[in-house]
Design goal:
Blueprint lengths: L7 E5 L3 H13 L14 E6 L1 H10 L7 E5 L15 H7 L1 E5 L2 E7 L4 E6 L2 E6 L5 E7 L2 E15 L7 H4 L11 E11 L6 E4 L4 E6 L6 E5 L2 E3 L2 E8 L5 E5 L5 H8 L4
Parallel strand pairs: 1-2, 2-3, 3-16
Antiparallel strand pairs: 4-16, 5-6, 5-15, 7-9, 7-13, 8-9, 8-12, 9-10, 10-11, 12-15, 13-14
Length: 261
């Protein structure tokens, strides 16, 4: 099904490669100014790497603008290959992947509360030389009484190929309706390597001995230090739409990543 696109915005990171691409595309196409107060684009082109794509998705998350990324960085897992030709036609034929972010509620040792959103993952890390001790509760049932580890993370399917995979977690199919719960360098329980959870699960981490073993919580790239408890669940009130060329759709990339040797 072809989607008609008439008003398209564009954003690029500050790298020379992305800026050169911006100049080339701006000479070929008429883009909408995304910063205008009355700007209502049908879609947005993003030039950069995965990190810049995440920044843009966070910044414009609540405007729910479909995003078509082109890789001008390194990995580019969330982006298409850069090609300046037939851009509008490719965007109109693109397949769309709808993602839902994680919402993180964190409470710190000084009693303050923070709320942040994550598209890839929410991660907890030890702040000192001593291992973190964390109690893990799923849907109000304690599943791990005491995890001794460098930390633990909750990943979305889109983020499962990133830090989650590096930490030994499973790659999750985009339509799997699952979240990956993965410990980071676990010491006890020695045989526990994580779990796959229903995407509607509510996960709570309670930090044990927070003064002696301080822990920070990170939602994508936003860090909250000295937490005592962190709750995480999927926020289905927010939908993010990523557009991919048919031969490079996100579902296929996630599948292919599982067969990379």
């Amino acid at each position: 099904m072809t989607t008609k696109l008439e008003r398209i915005a564009i954003m690029a990171d500050n790298s020379p490669k992305a800026q050169a691409a911006l100049k080339e595309l701006s000479a070929k196409y008429d883009f909408l100014n995304i910063t205008g107060k009355r700007s209502k684009p049908d879609a947005m082109v993003v030039l950069g790497g995965d990190g810049f794509m995440l920044q843009v998705l966070h910044k414009y998350m609540h405007r729910q603008i479909p995003v078509y990324g082109m890789n001008c960085g390194s990995v580019g897992f969330l982006l298409n290959s850069y090609n300046p030709d037939l851009l509008i036609e490719r965007m109109q034929e693109a397949r769309r992947a709808v993602l839902h972010p994680l919402i993180m509620y964190a409470r710190t040792m000084d009693g303050k509360e923070r709320q942040e959103l994550a598209i890839n993952e929410v991660s907890l890390f030890r702040e000192s030389r001593q291992a973190a001790k964390i109690r893990v509760t799923i849907d109000h049932v304690v599943r791990v009484q005491e995890l001794s580890a460098d930390g633990i993370l909750v990943s979305t399917p889109a983020g499962s190929t990133a830090y989650n995979f590096s930490a030994g977690g499973p790659i999750v199919p985009l339509n799997g309706k699952l979240l990956a719960l993965t410990p980071i360098a676990p010491f006890r329980p020695r045989r526990w390597r994580g779990a796959l959870l229903n995407h509607q699960s509510s996960i709570t981490f309670e930090i044990l001995e927070p003064e002696k073993r301080p822990v920070s919580a990170v939602a994508d790239f936003t860090e909250v230090r000295d937490v005592v408890s962190v709750s995480v669940f999927e926020d289905r009130n927010i939908s993010l739409c990523l557009m991919f060329d048919p031969e490079h759709n996100l579902e296929e990339r996630i599948t292919k990543e599982q067969f990379s040797f």
